[in-house]
Design a protein that fits this description.
Elements: H1 3-42, H2 45-79, H3 81-115, H4 122-151, E1 156-159, E2 162-165, H5 169-172, H6 178-205, H7 211-246, H8 248-251, H9 254-268, H10 277-297, H11 307-311, H12 313-320, H13 323-338, E3 343-345, E4 349-350, H14 351-354, H15 360-391
Antiparallel strand pairs: 1-2, 3-4
Helix pairs in contact: 1-2, 1-4, 1-6, 1-13, 1-15, 2-3, 2-7, 2-15, 3-4, 6-7, 6-12, 7-10, 10-13
Length: 419
């Protein structure tokens, strides 16, 4: 058993699973901010019901996503000690900032929002949710800053075989960062929008109670996804062009690819420095799904006069489109990560030098353990979300339930008898 292959499989599996949590978290929190802002602005009870309903789904995904993220980070020290040693002084800075925002600020805001219903003024309660959303975006920002450095190392110098950060602003101006971050945000909005539209479509197909609520959430999700899918494809193409320049071995033209291979061969010796075909196939299938989603989301033109709901058949199309953004996002992530092989840090550190010096048996146990744990968290997450989604917005939800009124005081003493 090849320890390197097992370590790469483990990282690919666990990172892909965790990325699903991230997509839902970032997409839903944006839509949730819109719903609660509408509630505060209009005072319509339907927006309160929707905020409570989608807020519960968000909380489920957030809690289990945090657990998955903690488990994921352990493997940096366990399986990739060479990478941790080499890039710890650089990669650790954005990860530390992300941890502070995600675990402290974001979790604090979310906790106060959960327990602040009917205890805080509406404006203050809404401000807390805005705080959750902003810190979620900040968290994604710094994660992508760290990943961009692995794709295109900048602002560093190597001393005694260890990379040291010398130019912090260079991290956030990295050409491998900007479009990648925007692409991730748009993918999350697309995913969150289709999730909201699909669940709403299912309830409308069933002719469930509270049709007005599902009508609003269907429109909100579908319009959000439709607005995101076009820019998402454009940014995706721009990102491919940029990565072809930064990583010619991945998407470069033959002449540029040959020149980069010759350069890497002179530094690291003979080897296979061209991107695996899996990266190209993943990219192709991602764009195919993207164009398919464009066709599906053209149904947004049926929203006026509720034609989408009256025809009913388009609701089935939206429902069965639910897995597509998740599959496309995973394919895009795999294309980005696999494409820089055989490097853990492109042009600086190979995966052979990054992997921990452990045996195949230990790595196999690590792979099975981490995969089972992350898989269990993902299955638990989707079961709980599905169970809650089927209950619907018309049910008596625990989140935001008004406190019970105290019973009037009674006097248990016997009434006096008058004679």
């Amino acid at each position: 058993m090849d320890p390197l292959l097992l370590a790469r499989l483990q990282f690919a599996t666990t990172t892909s699973i965790h990325f699903l949590f991230v997509l839902v978290t970032l997409g839903l929190i944006t839509l949730l901010v819109y719903l609660q802002t509408r509630w505060v602005a209009t005072r319509k009870p339907v927006y309160e019901r929707l905020t409570r309903f989608w807020g519960t789904i968000y909380v489920i995904n957030y809690v289990l996503g945090i657990a998955a993220g903690v488990v994921l980070e352990f493997q940096f020290g366990l399986n990739w000690s060479g990478l941790s040693k080499y890039v710890g002084n650089v990669f650790g800075a954005p990860l530390a900032i992300e941890t502070l925002t995600a675990f402290f600020l974001e979790s604090t805001f979310l906790g106060m929002w959960i327990f602040g219903w009917h205890r805080l003024r509406r404006g203050v309660h809404l401000a807390l949710l805005w705080g959750v959303a902003l810190t979620a975006y900040v968290s994604a920002f710094w994660i992508m800053v760290g990943n961009a450095w692995l794709q295109n190392p900048v602002g560093y110098e190597t001393r005694d075989g260890i990379a040291h950060l010398t130019d912090f602003p260079a991290l956030v101006t990295n050409p491998a960062f900007g479009t990648a971050f925007l692409h991730t945000v748009l993918a999350a909005l697309l995913t969150g929008g289709i999730l909201m539209a699909s669940v709403s479509a299912w309830h409308l197909i069933r002719r469930a109670a509270d049709v007005e609520a599902y009508r609003i959430s269907l429109r909100t999700g579908l319009v959000t996804a439709a607005l995101a899918v076009g820019p998402l494809l454009v940014v995706g193409f721009v990102q491919v062009v940029e990565m072809a320049r930064l990583q010619p071995t991945k998407y470069g033209v033959p002449a540029e690819k040959a020149a980069k291979v010759a350069e890497l061969t002179a530094i690291f010796g003979p080897g296979d420095y061209e991107a695996p075909t899996a990266a190209l196939h993943s990219l192709s299938f991602m764009f195919i799904i993207g164009f398919l989603l464009v066709l599906i989301l053209l149904q947004v033109v049926l929203l006026p006069k509720d034609l989408l709901i009256r025809l009913r058949f388009p609701l089935w199309i939206i429902l069965f489109a639910l897995p597509l953004p998740f599959v496309a996002s995973i394919l895009g992530w795999l294309a980005r990560e696999i494409g820089r092989q055989p490097f853990a840090v492109y042009g600086l550190l190979t995966v052979d030098d990054a992997v921990s010096p452990v045996g195949g048996g230990v790595m196999l146990a690590s792979f099975l353990g981490f995969t089972l744990l992350l898989g269990a968290l993902a299955v638990t997450n989707w079961v709980l979300i599905a169970r809650h989604a089927t209950r619907g917005a018309h049910d008596d939800l625990a989140l935001g339930r008004p406190p019970e009124q105290p019973e009037p005081a009674t006097d248990d003493r016997p009434e006096p008898v008058f004679v």
